Amino acid sequence: MDGNERAAFAVTVLSLFPEMFPGPLGCSLAGKALADGAWSLETVDIRLFARDKHRTVDDAPFGGGAGMVMRPDVVDAAIEASRPADQGADQGEDKPLIYLTPRGRVLDQGRARELARGRGVTVLCGRFEGVDQRVLDRRRVEEVSIGDFVLSGGEPAAIVLIDAVVRLLPGVVGSARSLEEESFERGLLEYPHYTRPRVWEGEEVPEELVSGHHARVRAWRLERAEAATRDRRPDLWARYRAGIVKKEGLDDEHH
Ligand code: SAM
């Protein structure tokens, strides 16, 4: 490989249902990038690391309660088997080990971007009530959630995380500009989109967009992006406003 060439972004998925992969990641942009070698996918079947003849991977929770918990010895053996030979026990920062869990820090575009700059990611998918905490602590696993709701397993969450990262790899999305303008890139939701026909069911496309005047289009889009963010995401809006105030050295009262 010469200095300009980038090794394929290496994704490893540890799961009790490896047959769920690549699933949707084998289609469209991510699927094409996988076929083209921009990223690689390896799955590890956690059940293969069970130690008894029944291939048991879970057990009842200490302290009682409903459901079952994935055993630390089984999960740890699967992690060990997936660990690149040149990395320490915590897998290293350029190929972090992530456990998908509603208890994790919520995934955002900034973290997806950081991950895309690395050389890959190992993703651990939970089932049942989740994974014994000791293995997460021992392996210094990063806990990531995809939102404040509960899925039945980590696999759909892993697909979401991998898709968000893979589309940021160089060359996967045709135009770098379409990434730059997307929601969250400037701390705002994106502006609304319109295409042909220019009049549909009596509804016209906003006049600014067909004006042919680039500055007007830009101003309209910024205004709509700001309005959507203010109305729908007060959390993002507050951060965006704070950023403007800081950047421009303005007193918030006057902005
Ligand atoms: N008992 C867990 C709790 O209340 O936090 C939920 C376990 S859930 C039924 C089973 C698995 O689905 C989890 O171990 C995790 O891997 C995955 N999962 C569920 N919701 C998720 C979310 N919002 N983000 C990421 N992973 C999720």
Describe this structure in words.
This protein has 8 helices and 9 strands. With 255 residues, the chain is of the alpha/beta class. Helix 3 crosses helix 5 (154-166) and helix 7 (214-232) crosses helix 8. It is elongated. The chain has a 5-stranded parallel β-sheet with strand order 2-1-6-5-7, sandwiched between helices. A two-stranded antiparallel sheet has the order 3-4. The protein has a two-stranded antiparallel sheet with strand order 8-9. It binds S-adenosylmethionine. S-adenosylmethionine (SAM) binds next to strand 5 and helix 5.
| Strand portion | 15-25%
Number of strands: 9
Q: Architecture of the largest domain in CATH?
A: 3-Layer(aba) Sandwich
Question: Main beta sheet, described?
Answer: 5 strands, parallel
Bound molecules: S-adenosylmethionine
Distance between the termini: 52 Å
Secondary structural class: alpha/beta
Tally of helical runs = 8
Give average pLDDT, whole number: 92
Tell me, briefly, the overall form: elongated
> CATH homologous superfamily of the largest domain?
SPOUT methyltransferase, trefoil knot domain
- Taken together, the total number of domains comes to 2
- The helix/strand order is EHEEEHEHEHEHHEEHH
Binned, the helix content reads 25-40%
Poorly predicted parts? none
Write out the strand line-up for the largest beta sheet, numbering strands in chain order. 2-1-6-5-7
What is the name of the CATH topology of the largest domain? Alpha/beta knot
CATH domain class name of the largest domain = Alpha Beta
Q: How large is the radius of gyration?
A: 22 Å
